Amino acid sequence: MSREELNRQAFKEEALELLGELETSLLELEEDPANDEVINRVFRAMHTIKGSGAMFGFEDIASFTHEVETVFDLARNGQISVSKELLDLTLLARDHILSMLEGEEQGLGERAGEVIRGLKALTPVQKQAQESPAVRDVPSTCSTDPSMNTWRIRFAPPKNLFMSGTNPASLLEELCEMGEHHVIMHTKDIPALSGLNPEDCLVWWDVILTTASSEDDIRDVFIFVEEDSDLTIQMVGSCQRIDEESYKLIGQILVEKNDITKDALERILLERKPIGQLLSEAGLVSASQVEAALVEQQEVKRLRQTASAEPQTSSIRVPAQKLDFLVDLVGELVTAQARLTQFASEQNDARLQAISEEIERLSDELRDNTLGIRMLPIGSTFSRFKRLVRDLSQELGKRIVLETHGEDTELDKTVIERLNDPLVHLLRNSIDHGIESPEERQARGKNPEGRIELSAEHSGGEVLIRIIDDGAGIDPERIRAKAVEKGVIPPDTLLSDKDTLMLIFAPGFSTADKVTSVSGRGVGMDVVKRNIDALRGRISLESVPGQGTTISVRIPLTLAIIDGLQVQVENSYFIMPLSAVEECVELIRKDEGRADLINLRGQMVPYVSLRAGFDIPGRSPEIEQVVVCNSQGRRIGIVVDRVIGEHQTVIKSLGKIYQDVRGISGATIKGDGSMALILDIAALIA
Amino acid sequence: MSKTIMTVDDSASVRQMVSLTLKDAGYAVIEACDGKDALAKLTGPIDMIVTDLNMPNMNGIELIRAVRATAQYKFVPIVMLTTESQASTKEEGKAAGATGWIVKPFKPDQLLAVAKKLLR
C-alpha cells in the first residue's frame, strides 16, 4: 500500500471511531444539555475529523464537518443553547459524515444541504467575528529574480526572544545562506555584568546581503518573529541601477538609518577626521554602527563594479562551415604538434623541448577553445519542450508537469540540432502512451498529475539525456506479442526483458492500437534510434509496468579530438579514451585457471584481454597491464602488453567499410606517422 | 546524531503522518497523545516539539506553558498546529511561548521546512 493509502486508511479508522464516540456523546448531551465537558468532547471530535479529513484528501467531509463544527463552536461558547433541534441536526450530520466516509454519498448532496440549512437557522444573526488575515504559509520557495541586489536588513528582536525558543543565530544563518553577506552585531545595549540577565536578548544586528532572492524570501526568514521584532528590509544596491556616480556617503547612510540626526552630522562635518571615526568618538554612534555603514558602502560599490564589468553580451553570427574548417585545421595542428613532441623528446635538446612543451600547451588550449565555440547549453531546447508538453497534454486531456535538470549542460551545436526531433518524438511518446489520464492515475492511487523529468548531464566522455516518466510503464509481454504479430521476431525467440523492450526500436513496430495524430505510425521509434546512432550515441529503455519508464540517450561529447591513452599489444597500437580510464594496474598471471577477476583495493573487477578479444597472435608477456575502465557505471579491466602514455588523439574515421567493426570507433595518426586504432570501450564491454 | 522531535496530537492519523514524514527525513520521533502524555514523556534530549492545540486532558497552550516552565526544556523550539479559524489561539500560543506555527491542513513538505528552519 502506498504511503497515501496508508494515511487514508488510518484516517478512516480513526474517523469511524470518532463518529462512534460522537454519537454516544450527543445522546449523553440529550440527557444533560448543559454539560460543558461533553460539549467540548463533541466539538473536539468534529474538529479532529475536519482537520485530519482535509489533510488526507477528504475535502468534502472536511468542508461539511466545518459547517457543523462552526455551529457547535457557538454552543461551546455559550452563544446558543444546546437545543433539541441542534442535537437532532448534529446527529443527522454525523450520520451523513458516516455515509460519506463509507463512500455511499458523494459530497454535499441533498441531505447535506438540508442539514446545513437547518444548522444555519439556529445561528443567531450577528456580525461574523472579523477573521484575521490568513496566516501566512511556511516559507515559500525562492522566486528567481535574475538580478542580484544588495539589501540592508536590520533585525532587532525583543528582549524576551529566547523565551519563545527562538535561536537568532539560526535566523542569521538562514539569511546568510542566501548570498554574500556581512553581519554586524550591535552590543551597545548590553549593560554591566551586575545588571545583566543572561536570558535576555540584548543585541541586535545589521546584515548587508547581496542575493538574487526577493524581499519576500528575506522576510520569510523572520516569519515567526516579525510581529514582535523590529525588522526593516531595504534594498540599497542593485545590479541595474548603475546611474548614480557613487553610492551614498557614510553620513548619509547613518542618517537614513536613523542612527544619527542630520544636525549632528552637519556639526561634525565641519571637522576633518573621517566621518565614521568622528561620530564614534563623539559617542553619537557605536563603532559597530559605523562598521555596518562602511560595510554597506563597500558592498554596494563591489556589486556595481561587478555589474559594470560584465561585458555587453555581444555576439557574431558565424556560418557553421567556417567553424568546421577551423576545427579541421586545429586537428591538423594537433597532429603536427604530436610529431613535434615526439621528435623533441628524442633529441635531448633542452631548448627544443621547452619550445615543444609550449606549443603543446598552446595547441591544447586552442583545441579546447575551438571545440568549445560550437558548444551550446541544451537549456533552450528544454524550454521549448515545456511548451510542447503543455500543449500536448492539454490536447490529450492529461495533466502533466515537465521538470528539467541540467539546462547548463553543453553540447555541440549540430548535435543539439540533430537531437531535437528524436527528443520531441520520445516526449510525445511519453505523453501519449506513457502518462495515463488523470482518472486512470487516480484509480491507481497515483497523483492525477503526471510527471516527466527531462535531465541532461555529463557522464564519462558523454552527455546523458534522460526522459523519466511516472506513467504506465511498458509491459514486455505486450511488446513481445506485438513483435511476433508484426513479424519482427520469430515466435520462438528467447529474449530477456531488456532486449524485449529494445524491440520497440525495430522498424515497422508500433503497439498503439489506433494511429493517433501524435504518434503510432510505426515510423517513429526506429527513426529515433537511427538518428541517435548517426550521432554515435546509444539509446536504452528501462521500465517498471505501472510505475514508469526511463529512456536514456547517450551521446559522445566531442567528435573530433579526444585525450587518449596509448597502449600496445604485440605490434599493434591502440588508443583508449582517457575519459573512460580510471587507472592502470599490473597483472601477473600466476595461474590460468582462476576467474578473470582482479582485486582492486577490495573491489573485484573483471577483466578481458585485448589480445584474446582481437585474436592477436603471439604470446602475452609475463607481466601485463590492466587498464581499469569505467563505462556506464561498470568497471572492467582491459589487459594489454604495455601502457605507453597519454596521447592527444585526432579521430579519423575509418571509412564505410569498417563502420560495423565492433570495438573500434576510429583511428588516428601517431606522432611517428604510424596508425593506432581507437577503442570503443562501451562496445567492448557489452 | 539525529535530532529528536516530539509530536503531540490526539489524532492518531495526524501523529502517524507527522511521525512518518519526520522519520523519513532522518529525525527520531516521540509520540504523545495529549499534553499530559507529552509532559510524562519529556525526558532525555528533545530538540523540538510539534503540538496540536485542541487536545483533551491538557491542551496545547497549557503544554507550551508547562514546557517553558521546566529548567531543562525552557528554550526548546515549539511549533503549534493551528487552524485558520482560530487566529486568537495563535496569539495565545505565542504569548505562552510558542516558537512558530503551521496551519492545518498542511503538506509534509511544509512540516519539513519548518523543522529545517528551527533545527539548524
Describe this structure in words.
The complex is a heterodimer of chains A (686) and B (120). Chain A has 686 residues and is of the alpha+beta class. Chain A has five domains: 3-122, HPT domain (Four Helix Bundle (Hemerythrin (Met), subunit A), Up-down Bundle), CATH 1.20.120; 149-308, no CATH class; 320-373; 377-556, Heat Shock Protein 90, CATH 3.30.565; 561-685, Roll (SH3 type barrels). Chain A is built from 21 helices and 21 strands. In chain A, the strands form five sheets. Chain A has a five-stranded mixed sheet. Chain A has a five-stranded mixed sheet with strand order 19-12-13-21-20. A five-stranded mixed sheet of chain A has the order 14-17-18-16-15. In chain A, helix 3 (59-76) packs antiparallel against helix 4 (84-101), helix 10 runs antiparallel to helix 11 and helix 15 packs antiparallel against helix 19. Chain A is flat, with a radius of gyration of 37 Å. The two termini of chain A are 38 Å apart. Chain B has 120 residues and is of the alpha/beta class. Chain B has one domain: Response regulator (Rossmann fold, 3-Layer(aba) Sandwich), CATH 3.40.50. Chain B is 42% helix and 22% strand. Chain B has helices at 12-24, 35-40, 60-69, 87-96, 108-118, and strands spanning 4-8, 28-32, 48-52, 78-83, 100-104. Chain B is globular. Classes of the chains: A alpha+beta (686), B alpha/beta (120). At the A-B interface, helix 1, helix 2 and helix 6 of A face helix 1, strand 4, helix 4, strand 5 and helix 5 of B.
The percent of residues in helical segments of chain B reads 40-55%
Side-by-side strand order of the widest sheet of chain B: 2-1-3-4-5
| Class based on secondary structure composition and strand pairing of chain B | alpha/beta
- In the CATH hierarchy, what is the superfamily of chain B? Response regulator
Helix content of chain A: 40-55%
Name the helix and strand elements of chain B from N-terminus to C-terminus, one letter apiece: EHEHEHEHEH
Instruction: Supply Rg of chain B.
Output: 13 Å
* CATH 2nd-level architecture of the largest domain in chain A: 2-Layer Sandwich
Q: In whole angstroms, how far apart are the ends of chain B? A: 13 Å
Major sheet of chain B: 5 strands, parallel
- Identify the CATH homologous superfamily of the largest domain in chain A: Histidine kinase-like ATPase, C-terminal domain
